[in-house]
Amino acid sequence: MRYRTLGTSGTVVSELALGTMTFGAETDETESCAILDRYVDGGGTFVDTADVYAGGRSEEIIGRWMKAEAARADRVVLTSKARFPTSDDPNDVGVSRRHLARALDASLRRLGVDHIDLYQLHAWEQVTPIEESLRFLDDAIRAGKIGYYGFSNYTGWQIATAAGVAARHGWAPPVTLQPQYNLLSRGIELEIVDAASETGLGILPWSPLAGGWLTGKYQRGVLPTTGNRYAKPQDQAAREERDRDDRVWEILDVLARVADSHSATQGQIALAWLLSRPIVTSVILGARTLDQLTQNLPASEIELSDTEREELDRVSAPRFDEYPYSGWARQDRHRPLEGGR
């Protein structure tokens, strides 16, 4: 396992993080604890959760594991998130000072700790002034309840707005952004990556395997009926849309060829590609089973060649079809050092 700094902070985390959204839902407590054991024993140090994962049960399981495995848990850099509803009360949602204060205290209780290393706003919302949210986060840092803060699912303008407000007031700056990012979903490269880079945010990609697509387990034209997230009727439309997309299968073909050359799995190569992106701090592995985690951890050891990275970059290139992201409009934002028209 290799390590990187958490954005522009001085805290170091493993380049593969453990996502725990399934803990207490699809993954029972015994399996969850086995996953945590294996992850930390393999050099992992960065555990990601949120107050809404399994209605708080994910945090509770992590908290009981940390208490029972104090020596292992001492290495863990812990992150949680808040924003989404925790009850039907109209104030139990959002990023207001009231909701965040209660959500943070509840997360601390469930986790059995008095400090969370990284606390992230799970998404933007249009009701609360951003000044209110950022002042709360700065106060929480000063109170010793959190070490750093970051954002999840923010757009480029939201990142720039929040970072600018924090700087103008002299409040602690954000250090991370947690977006969806993978070979099938590179839309954040339109401007979110640039916004994160300009403000010093380390990116923590979620869904790095695109819901299992990048593991190679799907076959074109074969729609699963059981034992799969896309087997649910409400998810069939998304499954069918990807199945019809030629670009998806071109990416998977290249992924398979690169995986064969490394005697690796397609999932490991997809993770290695993300780890090669300069702005990525740590890739979040959402392991549902111990076997899934064990299979994906070796991705940290794979070094892709320049040719392999370029081929994966080319086949998965995000689509910049329209203004202001089309070719000429993007070109107009760059100035060649040699000058000229």
Tell me roughly what share of residues is in helical segments: 25-40%
Give the number of helices. 13
Strand order of the largest sheet: 9-8-7-6-5-4-3-10
Shape: globular
End-to-end C-alpha gap: 48 Å
- Residue fraction in strands: 5-15%
User: Any idea what the radius of gyration is?
Assistant: 20 Å
Topology as a string of helices (H) and strands (E):
EEEHEHHEHEHEHEHEHHHEHHH
Extract low-pLDDT stretches: none
Major sheet, described briefly? 8 strands, parallel
Mean pLDDT: 93
Structural account:
By secondary structure, this protein is α/β, with parallel strands linked by helices. It has 13 helices and 10 strands. The protein has helices at 29-41, 57-68, 70-73, 97-111, 130-142, 156-169, 192-198, 236-243, 246-262, 266-275, 290-296, 306-315, 327-331; strands spanning 3-5, 12-14, 16-19, 46-48, 77-82, 116-121, 146-152, 176-178, 202-203, 283-285. It has an 8-stranded parallel β-sheet with strand order 9-8-7-6-5-4-3-10. A two-stranded antiparallel ribbon has the order 1-2. α7 links the parallel β8 (176-178) and β9. α5 packs across α6 (156-169), α9 packs across α10 (266-275) and α9 runs antiparallel to α12. It is globular and about 50 Å long. It starts with a strand and ends in a 10-residue tail after the last helix. The mean pLDDT is 93.
